[in-house]
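User: Last request for today: this protein with uridine-5'-diphosphate-xylopyranose, please.
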Amino acid sequence: MLKSGVSFLRFQNITLSCSNKSYTLLHCQTLSISMAPHVLIFPLPMQGPVNCMLKLAELLCLSGISVTVLNTDHIQRTLLRHTNVLSRFSRYPNFHFQTISDGLPHDHPRSSERFLEVCEGMRTVTEPAFREMMVSGCFSSKSASPVTVIIPDGSFSFALDVAEEIQIPLIYFETVSPCALWTYLCLPKLIEAGEVPFNGNDLDVLIRSVPGTETFLRRRDLPGFYRIDNLANHVMQIIMNEAQHVPRAYGVIINTFDELDASILVHMRNLCPNIYCIGPLHTLHKNRLAVASKTTTLKQQSDVSNSLWEENRTCLSWLDMQPAKSVVYVSIGSMARMTVDQFFEIWQGLVNSGKPFLWVQRPGSVLGEYDDSQVPQNLVDETKQRGFIATWVPQEEVLAHPAIGGFLTHGGWNSTMESIMEGVPMICWPFYVDQQVNSRFVSEVWKVGIDIKDTCDRVIIEKAVNDLIHVKRDEFIRSVKPLAESGAQSVAQDGSSYMDLNRLVEDVKSMNL
Ligand code: UDX
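Assistant: Here's the final one, the structure of the complex with uridine-5'-diphosphate-xylopyranose:
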């Protein structure tokens, strides 16, 4: 691969004729060769962000851009164990995986309750190692394949400091929702206005310092991290850093489409003028792969999973036996967790609803122990009749299945987008990160579901399931269908997200000239 920016001389023979004599001149021209751009994609080591970033990586490969994905050793090992990611990406000659340590021992659970240890490992080990890679190591300007653009997770403020030091452009990929990102970017104003930390315990006080949300966003709908007593909190510092760094980047990539988040984007663009809205990303990715398999030698791959757990695909044949729109799908993503009491309240609420349910009980998602003798016999019997329990499933295929009538979710952004695009209404039971904000938008702005945040009670869950599947179903479907349609239009040819991806590709290519 040629080094970028190195000049070469090109010699040409030029014949001049003058007074019937011809002279041959050796014409020397200086050319500066710019090599193909090389993008470094650097995901936050969690299922949601890794899922998004691998989809973006493949979209850039399809556009002929050289891409390296920098995963932590743990994420890479787990991906290789549960997916065909290596063979899938081996189809792109200009694609590479690179790994980096997260500073934690092999057997560290990397769970949400020990998330601060993950942050500490990133800060003490990953950040210096990343800087070395970029300044003098395998991605530096002295290397055989210098990185020309960095696309890291929006929470990696350190990456922008390195990019500015070595003077290469950085485009953040914010894998949380735009509505939550907006509450991050407004954190300095929230603090200045005395709205964070909260003054008093009333969580239903409306928030005034997040433009575009003044009529419906309450304290309880802000990111769970904001429910703190003092600002010295480590996570608040990470968000404060993000709020100060993101507007300094060359641009911000977000997994949404204009019609869904217009009310937020109009304000966000005042702070971050260069936003690439490329969502619904999973649909855009699927569409572009389908086109590539028809127009190039690239073979269509049926399995495009990026799962960090083994997928139980037998749930799909169980769904085949259920009536249309009858099943409640239950999953709280890759990091959220519940107590044993909450586990039994959800279980009892699902059984009391009388509806069939498909429940993803991810390993580590229940904090604390319980033994089978504690499980009431009626739960066991009813679940045998109408339930299917799995540790992990192919969620995009599950949500697309005709038997699915509703989704009891934690409100992670990928799950929210996937549910909207399949026209599946949601019950949101948020845990942390952006989920509180997402669940408020699901219920109050997009009106495609029910927000049960800060509760966990079998009666509330039973009622929410019945409202979702029966009582209010038509109302939710009237709202979610048009959103799904505009999402599909945005990723179709000449749609807003389709065009923003093209603009991103052109910008990445032009940065290297
Ligand atoms: C994390 C944060 O928790 C979330 O709030 C933020 O928006 C993104 O980063 P995660 O908790 O993993 O994400 O949730 P989500 O964003 O919903 O991503 C989960 C992904 O795993 C989805 O793409 C979903 O399709 C997939 N999934 C989930 C499966 O493939 N199988 C499952 O059984 C469950």
